[in-house]
């Protein structure tokens, strides 16, 4: 019997071998569907195919084969489908969906006892998959949907397969962001991004995945994965009235990732934070986080870890915004209704960003709803806001349009005060974004943005400034491991002042900066341990440092226009997130940047060992148009590491060094007409900085409470400042009035944050110091005897408390309390007479401080009713800014009256400011 069985198997093997050797056919197909192709193959090969018709995809085939083996033909026509095949004998071929048929088990399928023990011990480790996937449909039938992904390949021995896709609302088609996708039985999980996309690694075979979302139904799916593939999730809206629901995906991100100094701002929840005049303000909320501050109310920009305002890279859809504020900092120029994500990097700046020393503020707008019309509006005491989303091609493309404006100008002109009747206070901003999903692998988005300010209060001068940006982004997914984006942006910023009075000195003055950038950004997942981020970029600068021209024929002002500066900046980078072990994660990147100052320019050459003045010029070097004048550059390291001390406690460390090729020149702490932008050039070197940071991060209460303490030390060089008594306004040879020196800053940041529950919010405290050292070769290039002195933005103590309390589903209370050390200032300390004239004697620069700043804000929020069927959702916000009526100084200045020097103080909001605003979503 045994011999007979062996002989039968040999004969069967010879039969199959002979059949495959003689299985050559000639056949051709011209744009024929796959079902017809299979029928033709049956006729041409005299074989019988067994399959279910619903397995056959609607695919067109155009191909021609001449005496080609049938197995090769089948491999070719099925290669982009989920179909596999198996030869039974000469007349029978079985088609299978996803899986393959095994006629023998692979070697090592039944491990030895010792191997079984090792496999159990290494359950959470990677393994080399060579075994077939077995699944019993009958035993696992039920309410849980079973989904098969990918086409099994016996030659593919991957340890993990990639499941990717997109989650969207079944009714509206709107992407579902921040939805958790969890792998049951493990600690593995991911969350969808702002556009609803996700990507998760699964072992071959059966996996149970579960979704968790506040807005949509939670589902469980049984995923049988044979290869890389796609699973899109179309989910119903969650209309069930629930208690508190928390999304746990990425809840421990602050502990688990390798980045130090990274802060994410919850755009949705900033509506509960009481701010001036009821405006939601992304930038103001940022200053309530540790390590981020500004010089005071009414100041533009912010200071991060002891850096200047111009050392922050502010991006809106990858395009640079030079002034992100209205009314010189009272309002933000970023529309919260159109903003999807906002992330601040103040420690470990990723290698893909460059050109600034202190931080990156990366803001991304939302993608418009491609299914149906929706919008949001608000009405406040001085401003109104409206944002709408309109489908263009259903499920493919849509446009988002947002606009804000103020009617404060109309209010001023209707007041009884005559001086205020002649005042102007006007701003508006508008944004439009078109997003088009070409297919599952290609996406296009285009953004345009404009903001404009015009401001004059009881003054002869009208200040105005304008931001314009345009951004085009094309994203392509090459495969499950590789994707990239091609980005083009343009940014333009203008500042102007118009001065008119009754005398013959009317004028217009201003400056302008324009930059254009092209960038290729790529991501590649090599394996579970290595994920690469790499790319190249190029940027062209055009800077008009300043001009002045007369207004009217009677003006005595002489026209002056400084020479335009041009420069080109290029960068290339590569970074790797390397998982060394479960405890140790490294993020290592290198960026190389280079900058060239371009002609046309006549460069002064000054006598060596002499101060740069008009009297020490010895030569003039001429450079033609686009001719490189001088080139700077070098490598920038971006290194960080995370190590788990406990499952919910980690220690992180990082090191960064950065270059900055553009500078702001100012001898004031806020935006003024004497400000100007200058590029690095022959006489002005680029700024450089390096930062070290170390921090401990701990979560409590199932990741609901975050705590962190982080210290940093930063040094910088070539910091640009002005000589004592410098004249920066319309100075063609500004190198004669500025000096470059050293900077250092250090600090300790503490954050306690409760993310959910009826009572939530955060407490932050920062102790920081920021110093400058200006020690030139000559007396007029030395400040404070060449010693380190506090910078304009040195504030040792900064405390913020933000709290929210939900009384019911409709009623909630919020409060802010802020305390900051007063910023440094230079005081007059006396006067003296010389040659018949009186002169003021000043202290060392920034030797004194203005009074400390503190403020308490309160608000009450009234949500609309929670009916399931209604036109839209609304809420009221009642807030009081500066409840204590603290007369916080905006600036301190000195005047001479009756021969006496008197100190004066100006404030922006010295009394409580009540506000009522109404918001409506539809």
UniProtKB/TrEMBL annotation:
Annotated membrane topology: Multi-pass membrane protein
Keyword Transmembrane: yes
Subcellular location: Cell outer membrane
Record's signal peptide: 1-19
Family matches, as PROSITE patterns: TONB_DEPENDENT_REC_3 (PS52016)
Keywords from the UniProt entry: Cell outer membrane, Membrane, Signal, Transmembrane, Transmembrane beta strand, Transport
InterPro entries tied to this protein: Beta-barrel_TonB_sf, CarboxyPept-like_regulatory, Plug_dom, Plug_dom_sf, TonB-dep_rcpt-like
Coiled-coil segments: none
UniProt KW Acetylation keyword: no
Pfam families reported in the protein's UniProt record: CarbopepD_reg_2, Plug
Stretches assigned to the TonB-dependent receptor plug domain: 279-356
Family the UniProt entry places it in: Belongs to the TonB-dependent receptor family.
Name of protein: Carboxypeptidase-like regulatory domain-containing protein
Taxonomic path: Bacteria, Pseudomonadati, Bacteroidota, Flavobacteriia, Flavobacteriales
């Amino acid at each position: 019997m045994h011999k007979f069985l062996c002989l039968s198997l040999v004969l069967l093997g010879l039969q199959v071998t002979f059949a495959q050797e003689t299985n050559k056919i000639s056949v051709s197909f011209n744009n024929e569907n796959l079902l017809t192709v299979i029928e033709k193959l049956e006729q041409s090969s005299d074989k019988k195919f067994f399959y279910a018709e619903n397995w056959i995809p609607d695919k067109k085939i155009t191909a021609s084969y001449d005496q080609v083996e049938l197995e090769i033909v089948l491999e070719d026509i099925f290669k982009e489908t989920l179909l596999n095949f198996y030869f039974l004998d000469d007349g029978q071929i079985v088609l299978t969906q996803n899986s393959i048929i095994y006629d023998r088990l692979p070697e090592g399928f039944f491990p030895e006892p010792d191997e079984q023990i090792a496999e159990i011990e290494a359950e959470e480790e990677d393994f080399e998959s060579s075994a077939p996937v077995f699944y019993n449909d009958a035993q696992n039938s039920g309410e849980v949907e079973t989904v098969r992904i990918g086409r099994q390949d016996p030659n593919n021995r991957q340890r993990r397969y990639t499941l990717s896709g997109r989650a969207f609302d079944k009714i509206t088609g709107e992407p579902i962001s921040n939805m958790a996708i969890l792998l049951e039985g493990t600690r593995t999980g991911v969350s969808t991004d702002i556009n609803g996309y996700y990507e998760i690694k699964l072992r071959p075979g059966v996996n149970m995945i579960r979704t968790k979302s506040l807005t949509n139904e939670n589902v469980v799916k049984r995923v049988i994965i044979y290869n890389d593939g796609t699973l899109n999730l179309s989910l119903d809206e969650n209309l069930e009235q629930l208690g508190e629901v928390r999304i746990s995906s990425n809840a421990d991100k602050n502990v688990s990732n390798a980045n130090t100094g990274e802060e994410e701002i919850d755009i949705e929840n900033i509506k509960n934070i009481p701010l001036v005049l009821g405006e939601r303000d992304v930038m103001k909320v940022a200053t309530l986080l540790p390590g981020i501050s500004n010089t005071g109310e009414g100041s533009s920009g912010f200071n991060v870890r002891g850096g200047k305002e111009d050392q922050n890279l502010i991006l809106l859809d990858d395009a640079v915004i030079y002034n992100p504020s209205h009314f010189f900092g009272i309002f933000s120029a970023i529309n919260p209704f159109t903003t999807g994500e906002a992330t601040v990097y103040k420690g470990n700046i990723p290698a893909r960003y460059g050109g600034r020393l202190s931080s990156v503020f990366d803001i991304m707008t939302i993608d418009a709803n491609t299914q149906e019309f929706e919008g949001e509006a608000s009405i406040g005491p001085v401003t109104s806001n409206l944002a709408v989303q309109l489908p263009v091609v259903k499920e493919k493309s849509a446009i988002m349009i947002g606009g804000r404006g103020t009617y404060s100008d109309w209010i001023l002109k209707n007041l009884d005060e005559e001086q205020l009747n002649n005042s102007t206070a006007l701003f508006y901003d508008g944004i439009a974004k078109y997003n088009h999903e070409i297919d599952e692998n290609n996406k296009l988005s285009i953004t345009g943005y404009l903001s404009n300010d015009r401001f004059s209060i009881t003054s002869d001068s009208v200040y105005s400034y304008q931001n314009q940006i345009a951004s085009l982004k094309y994203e392509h997914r090459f495969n499950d491991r590789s994707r990239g984006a091609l980005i083009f942006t343009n940014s333009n910023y203008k500042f102007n002042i118009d001065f008119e009075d009754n005398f013959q000195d009317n004028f217009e003055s201003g400056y302008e900066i324009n930059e254009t950038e092209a960038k290729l950004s790529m991501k590649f997942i090599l394996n579970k341990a290595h994920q690469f981020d790499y790319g190249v970029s190029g940027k062209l600068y055009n800077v008009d440092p300043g001009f002045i021209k007369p207004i009217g024929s009677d003006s005595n002002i002489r026209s002056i226009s400084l020479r335009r500066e041009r420069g080109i900046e290029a960068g290339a980078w590569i970074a790797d997130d390397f998982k060394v072990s479960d405890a140790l994660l490294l993020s290592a990147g290198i960026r190389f940047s280079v900058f060239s100052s371009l002609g046309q320019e006549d460069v002064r050459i000054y006598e060596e060992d002499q101060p740069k003045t008009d009297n020490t010029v010895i030569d003039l070097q001429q450079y033609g148009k686009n001719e490189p004048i001088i080139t700077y550059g070098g490598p920038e390291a971006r290194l960080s590491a995370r190590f788990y001390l406990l499952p919910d406690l980690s220690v992180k460390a990082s090191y960064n060094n950065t270059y900055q090729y553009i500078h702001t020149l100012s001898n004031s702490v806020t935006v003024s007409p004497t400000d100007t932008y200058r590029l690095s050039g022959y006489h002005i070197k680029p700024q450089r900085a390096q930062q070290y940071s170390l921090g401990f991060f701990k979560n409590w209460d199932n990741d609901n409470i975050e705590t962190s303490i982080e210290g940093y030390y930063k040094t910088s060089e070539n910091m640009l400042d002005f000589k004592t008594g410098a004249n920066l306004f319309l100075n063609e040879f500004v190198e004669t009035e500025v000096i470059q020196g050293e900077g250092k800053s250090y600090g300790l940041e503490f954050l306690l944050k409760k993310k959910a529950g009826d009572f939530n919010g955060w407490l932050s405290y920062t102790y920081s110091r920021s110093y400058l050292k200006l020690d030139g070769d000559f007396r007029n290039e030395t400040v404070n005897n060449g010693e380190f002195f506090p910078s304009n933005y040195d504030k040792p103590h900064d405390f913020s408390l933000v709290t929210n309390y939900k009384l019911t589903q409709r009623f909630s209370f919020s409060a802010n309390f802020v305390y900051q050390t007063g910023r440094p200032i230079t005081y007059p300390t006396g006067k003296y007479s010389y040659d018949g004239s009186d002169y003021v004697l000043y202290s060392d620069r920034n030797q004194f401080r203005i009074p400390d700043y503190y403020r308490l804000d309160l608000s009450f929020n009234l949500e609309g009713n929670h009916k399931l069927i209604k036109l839209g959702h609304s809420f009221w916000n009642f807030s009081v800014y500066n409840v204590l009526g603290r007369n916080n100084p905006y600036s301190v200045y000195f005047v001479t009256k009756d021969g006496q020097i008197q100190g004066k103080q100006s404030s922006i909001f010295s009394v409580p400011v009540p506000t009522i605003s109404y918001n409506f979503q539809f």
